[in-house]
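User: Teach me something about this protein's shape.
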Amino acid sequence: MRHTIFMLLLLSLFIGTANGAIVSGSTENRLKQLGERSAKVAAGKAAEYAKDLLETAKLSVQAAQAAALVGNEVMAIQKIELADLQLTVAETKASTKETVELVAVKRAELKKLDARLENLRLGGE
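Assistant: First, the predicted structure itself:
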């Protein structure tokens, strides 16, 4: 399904751009930075905790690259911004899940210490 949507997007980009102009250097630079950020996020905890969001962001990056190739700067900028937001959401989701796991571990440690304290309070060891 995603592949079909991506192909339709590519087709619309090719049909919709008659001038074939080259995108600006700033857009190319943003696209390069986005690719680097995408790789960095994919190498982190987001790959484990937010795989679905990373896949969606990768599709947006590819759509931005396709738009840049055909010279559709407006579409490229929109897809860059979308992918950037999707990567931010993936990072946030991964961070949240990691924090929840850490809280669960700390809660278990606290329960053990609480039981030990209660045992000491009652005169045992």
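Now, about its shape. The chain has one domain: 2-121. Residues 2-121 form one domain. If you'd like, I can walk through any region in more detail.
User: That's plenty for now, thanks!
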